[in-house]
Amino acid sequence: MAHSLDTPSTPEGPSADQLLPIREVSRITGVNPITLRAWERRYGLIAPTRTEGGHRLYSEDDVDTIRRITGWIERGVAVSKVGRILAATRTQDARARGPRSVIDTGGQRAWQDRLRQAASSFDEPLLDQLLHGVFAVYPVPVAYENVLMPVWRDFAARKESYGQISEWLFFDGFLRLRTLRLLQRDGGAGGRHVLLASIPGMCRELELSVAALLMTTPHTRITVLSPEQPLEELSLVCSRIRPDALVLFSNHKPHGYQPRRLLKLGLGLSCPMVMAGEMADMVQDDIKGTPIGCLGSDGAVMRERLQRFLEGRLDT
């Protein structure tokens, strides 16, 4: 355990028994120690605490950052570019939350643990109670982005052992139904009409529904297209529905991605197009100065930027 090593050289932050040595972090995250050291020394992506003897100790926030780095790399982002994306998403989050107090990550993890246990027990009534509790404590964007979706992603990732596929399907179905209900309750009846589509094969139904929920306002109605909607037929759909804008959402960079194809798609539509999700953070340099807008990946930021885009006030 971490407390068997030297005392950390800095008195601030988590206590020694809350920190993890590099071998334990490697076991938890699947990233070998050599890579962890390179991410720290070469790219400055993580900054573990050092003991007086020079041993690295990692906090839970460091572990979360390592998982995010791994996620970006798995999505096709070069490690040399991950730092800029992490900084941009942190800035988006800070701006969106404004003067609100720092989020209690320990409290969020406690909710996550309770949700995992209830889902693993297939206890739908308990899941409903926990969901009401989460929404009572956190705003909807924070509840989804910091509590619900991390649990959903954990279930999606661990489907190797007996029963884990069933747990994943149960929790996914539970969240999809509740998210749809929230969309029907909160969706604007008039005002602006926005279509939300994804890169086929790059997004699940729940991810699209959550994105729609986070971007919906009383004056903005969002129609969610199927995750399998062909990109080449979006121009047909837009010409018939006549939306005020199309939001193209994905948390993954498409295979064989080329900026000119994205620009060609946007120029071929009868309405303006914006990018959203983590893909938007990946391609924002490519679309800068084009008619295509970038909403980012933070829920509150996406909502605010979408409204600015619809009003013609978002720089592209």
CATH superfamily of the largest domain: Cobalamin-binding domain
Summarize the biggest pleated sheet: 5 strands, parallel
Structural class: alpha/beta
Order of helices and strands: EHHEEHHHHHHEHEHEHEHEH
- What value does the average pLDDT take? 83
The CA-CA distance between the termini, in Å, is 50 Å
CATH topology of the largest domain: Rossmann fold
Q: Helical stretch count?
A: 13
Question: In what range is the share of β-strand residues?
Answer: 5-15%
Number of domains: 3
CATH architecture of the largest domain: 3-Layer(aba) Sandwich
- CATH class label of the largest domain: Alpha Beta
Per the principal axes of the C-alpha atoms, what is the gross shape?
Answer: globular
Report low-confidence residues grouped into runs of 5 or more.
Answer: 1-14, 96-102
**Roughly how much helix do the residues carry, as a percent range?**
40-55%
Task: Please state the CA-atom Rg, rounded to the nearest Å.
Answer: 21 Å
Strand order of the largest sheet: 5-4-6-7-8
